[in-house]
UniProtKB/TrEMBL annotation:
It comes from Cupriavidus necator (Alcaligenes eutrophus). InterPro entries: Acyl-CoA_Oxase/DH_mid-dom_sf, AcylCo_DH-like_C, AcylCo_DH/oxidase_C, AcylCoA_DH/ox_N, AcylCoA_DH/ox_N_sf, AcylCoA_DH/oxidase_NM_dom_sf. Belongs to the acyl-CoA dehydrogenase family. Residues 231-381 form the Acyl-CoA dehydrogenase/oxidase C-terminal domain. The keyword Ribonucleoprotein does not apply. This is Acyl-CoA dehydrogenase.
């Protein structure tokens, strides 16, 4: 995989960097947080007008025809500013799952409004028992005349507070009973947010972003709310989560970069014994360790992008688990060390660096934490050895 950016990709990365430097400094972000903002309409329009929402969507449905690399370039820069808008949840997770699952007619109907920012979709897949993984799924869809009735609860729905509709993973009876090995399969539905029986509870997360808990209490949907064909639900959900994991990992690499920059500047101006504390060799060693961890994380991100492009889905998912565990732990280490090097001021709400650690903690919980993904990798390796 070629990681040298072409001119269009360099322009994309530069445009996002200019936005976060000019319009999304820490003071601007703090003002949004204090105002209780979950998604600034002004900033979301900026995302749409600059083509960031459409970057990795097909040209036939209003997108720019880009790839996962374009998404990663965007989220890497957004991570530097700890952007609170639900780009990850709506523009990556939901959009890429929809692209993977939908028929051509469904893409034509749904993707253009995501690309231009006029509608937001959120992916409601996580449940208490799944711990951020795509399975198991307890939510069910009971057949009814003309459609299905949905029952269940979805947790940690990123972008769910302001979504116009949800993509929901549900267990449904097989269309042909003879093909059923357990009587049900995972399918994806598009459910409007104002559907009767649907309720959502806004959940403020530790890093000032928001998620939602969505309850489906006898929600009726028509049969045409089903995305794609039988057998497409779980593969599409896994593909969407692959894109989401890569985007989140890139965001954490961007956050580590910024945390190191902030800390480096602080060590140059903070004085002790009449000299900048950055001149102390022990602190220089700690900064070197932080930079090394960040570069290992960046290399792991590159390995994940290459695996998604070239490997079979099972191998790419195993690499995604490795990346999620390694980069998540690296981010907590780097951002935690940044707080340590700032001393007491690093613990205050009014100072920037502590918020990067909060983002790292929340990111570790999303899509399954490091321990869970390490367990997934261990199980996959054990199975491969057994087969051999």
């Amino acid at each position: 995989m070629n990681f040298n950016l072409n001119p269009e990709q360099q322009l994309l990365q530069d445009s996002v960097r200019r936005f976060v430097d000019r319009d999304y400094d820490f003071e601007a972000r703090t003002a949004l947080v204090k105002a209780g903002s979950r998604c600034s309409a002004k900033h979301w329009n900026t995302f749409a007008n600059n083509g960031w929402l459409a970057a990795a969507l097909p040209e036939a449905q209003g997108g720019l025809g880009g790839t996962l690399l374009d998404t990663v370039l965007i989220t890497g820069q957004l991570g530097r500013a700890l952007v609170i808008e639900p780009y990850l949840g709506c523009a990556v997770l939901a959009a890429q799952t929809l692209r993977a699952a939908a028929t051509e007619a469904q893409r034509d109907a749904l993707l253009p409004s995501l690309a231009d920012g006029s509608r937001k979709l959120a992916l409601a897949y996580s449940e208490a028992a799944s711990r951020g993984l795509p399975t198991p799924v307890a939510m069910r869809a009971d057949p009814a005349p003309g459609g299905y009735v949905l029952h269940g609860v979805k947790t940690l729905v990123l972008g769910g507070c302001d979504a116009d509709a949800f993509i929901v993973s549900v267990m449904t009876p097989y269309a042909t009973p003879a093909s059923a090995h357990d009587g049900a399969e995972l399918r994806l539905f598009v459910v409007e947010a104002d559907a009767a029986g649907l309720s959502r509870c806004a959940l403020p997360l530790h890093d000032a972003t928001w998620a939602a808990e969505v309850t489906f209490d006898g929600v009726f949907v028509k049969a045409d709310a089903l995305l794609g064909e039988s057998g497409s639900g779980l593969p599409a959900l896994r593909e969407g989560l692959l894109h989401g994991t890569a985007a989140l990992c890139a965001e954490l690499v961007g956050a580590m970069e910024k945390a190191i920059e902030i800390t480096s500047e602080y060590l140059k101006v903070r004085k002790q014994f009449g000299v900048p504390i950055g001149s102390f060799q022990a602190l220089q060693h700690r900064m070197a360790d932080m930079a090394a961890e960040m570069e290992v994380a960046r290399s792991m991100l590159y390995a994940l992008l290459a695996s998604i492009e070239t490997d079979a889905p099972e191998a790419a998912e195993r690499t995604a688990s490795q990346a999620k565990a390694l980069i998540g732990r690296a981010a907590k280490y780097v951002c935690g060390q940044a707080i340590q090097l700032h001393g007491g001021i690093g613990m205050t709400e009014e100072y920037t660096v502590g918020h990067y650690f909060k983002r790292a903690v929340v990111a570790d919980a999303l899509f399954g934490n490091a321990d869970l993904h390490e367990s997934c990798v261990a199980q996959a390796l054990q199975q491969s050895l057994t087969v051999e």
